[in-house]
Amino acid sequence: MADFLRVADVSEIPDPGKTLVDVDGDMVALFHVGGVFYAIDDVCTHDGGPLADGELRDHKISCPRHGAKFDIRTGAALSMPAIRSTRAHDVKVEDGGVWVRLRAEAGSGGPPLHGAVSAPVAAPLPVTSAAVAAPVPTVGGGSPAVVAPGESGPLCEDRVREMLKEVKDPELFVNIVDLGLIYGVTLSPSADVPGKLHAAIDMTMTSPACPAGPQLIADTKRCVGASPEVAAVEVRIVMEPPWTPDRMTDAARDQLGIF
Ligand code: FES
Fold it and tell me: Closest ligand 1 atom, CA of 82?
């Protein structure tokens, strides 16, 4: 096991505060919160963003690139688009200095010291529901069409949602329906093309600055627009209520290895 290395003077880091330190060649984000120091890798597990540059709130640090949050005490990923922990390290305060001992990997190492506890491999993300339910649309004023997924028949919300399972987040490789990104589907008679439908899809993103957004919108339009019953597809991006991991289905959580 690596030795503790002195990385800073206690007086250098305000409380609350953070800094970036070099620990034997590894860049480590060092935090001081509530009189306790914590250390995690300066690496967001989503796409390598520099965590020490992020916003610190209580014991959470937000990646400045796409907004994933991590627990500075454990390195656990708390929000998408990150799904894996970053490495947490052992920290001690001695002789007026802050000392860090590198752990080999997330969740490894010796006993917790000064608040640095073992980091779980995956973030604990509770499940409550898959997505916000939307009413089954009525087309042309009749009774709502109820068609089992995969069956043919009049286009309805269930069929549109089945179609949208073809659209996958390019970074997570999980479809947007199981991710809980589809908040609603509204089908109405097209004003321009008699006998066809206008499809309005309320979609959210895992974060306001989601880099996959333009591709997801284009793929959604292409996917639903391929139906011969659809004249036009409108994708409306909604950020309220904000997406949270508990909108994912069990299938998505299985795929992402989140238990
Ligand atoms: S690199 Fe950190 S959220 Fe994307």
Answer: 3
Which own/partner contact pairs does 15-19 have at CB distance under 8 Å and 24+ positions apart? 16/56, 17/56, 18/52, 18/56, 18/61, 19/52
Shared domain for 188 and 143, answered yes or no, is: yes
List residues bridging with 17 in a β-sheet. 32
* 233-255 confidence digits (pLDDT tens): 999 999 999 887 788 899 988 88
Beta-carbon neighbour count of residue 48 at 10 Å? 11
DSSP 116: B
| Most informative mutation of 41, 43, 45, 47 for ligand 1 (most atoms within 8 A of CB) | 47
CATH number of the domain bearing residue 26: 2.102.10.10
Residues 86 and 182 in one domain: no
For ligand 1, whether the C-beta of 68 sits within 6 Å is: yes
Residue 44 beta carbon below 6 angstroms from any ligand 1 atom = yes
Structural domain that includes position 77: 5-101
Single pTM value for the model: 0.55
User: Could you tell me if 175 and 164 are in contact, meaning their C-beta atoms sit under 8 angstroms apart?
Assistant: yes
Q: Is the CB of 172 under 6 A from ligand 1?
A: no
